[in-house]
Each structure stands twice: as structure tokens, then as C-alpha cells.
Amino acid sequence: MDRGGINNPEENKSASMQIDKIIKEERTWKGEILIKIRKVINETDPRIYEEVKWKKPSNPAGIPVWSYNGIICFGNILKNSVRLTFPKGVKVVDQDGLFNSRMDSKTVRAVDYFENDTIDEKKLTSVILQIIDMNEKNALKKK
Predict the structure, then answer these.
(1) Phi, psi of 74 (to 5 degrees)
(2) Strands (E), the chain
């Protein structure tokens, strides 16, 4: 459920605990990458809240999602990488070249992180802040 800027601490705690479990169960380098990504996202803006979406039989734990006035991004643990997908990524000015995946999509952009990759906090923060700004402007239009 999209709550805009309203942060429900109990719901957020539950989602955070679910994401903790997803990370804990991933006992490879991918869990460590997701921990680092999550830290950057959560430190970018305190209004960002965590959710878990898209639970299904093939992925009963679901997908970690970070939102504020709409989805900012979500993280998938794939076979050979951790993919951070930005549903509004095509609208982002990516002058620093963060995106390296889903470049042919008409809406989304993503970053695939591989073993031994480092997280460029500056680039990631820049993209997140742009999407927060977009989400805020869209929320104001709806009022």
C-alpha cells in the first residue's frame, strides 16, 4: 500500500524484519551487497520506508521495496547478481552512469551488482533523491 509520506512504524517494522530475514537467508555475497544497498537507501532520506511486495510461490519471501510517495526502487536477488530496479528510472538524469541494466526498457532502469562490486554511494544517492523529488511532485499534482 502506498502511504505517501505517512510512515506507519508497526508496518515498517514488520517489513524491515521481513527484509532482515531475506538477507539472513541469503548466505552469499549477495546478502552483503543487499545490506550495503539498503544502508545507502535508508540513510538517503529518513522518510523512505521499507515494504515487501510480490510474494508468490516461486518467491514466498517477496521482494524488498523502498518507497516514499510511491516506489523508489526494489531489490532482487538473482542467480548471478543483485538487481536494484528503479521503476521510474528512465526519467532520471543519470549523468554519473549508475544504471547498467534494463537499458532497453521504456520505463525502468536498474543496476546489477556482482560479486566484489562496490556500491557508489554518491551515484546511488543522487538517483534516489531525484526519484523522491519526482514522487513528491506527482503526489502534489494528485491533491
Answers:
(1) -145, 155
(2) 49-53, 63-67, 71-77, 82-86, 109-113
Domains of the chain in start order, with CATH, are 9-142 (3.90.1150.200)
All three cell numbers of 109: 532502469
Confidence of residue 133 (pLDDT cuts 50, 70, 90): very high
Beta strands in 32-115 (DSSP E): 49-53, 63-67, 71-77, 82-86, 109-113
pLDDT in tens, 48-94: 999 999 999 989 999 999 999 999 999 999 999 999 999 999 999 99
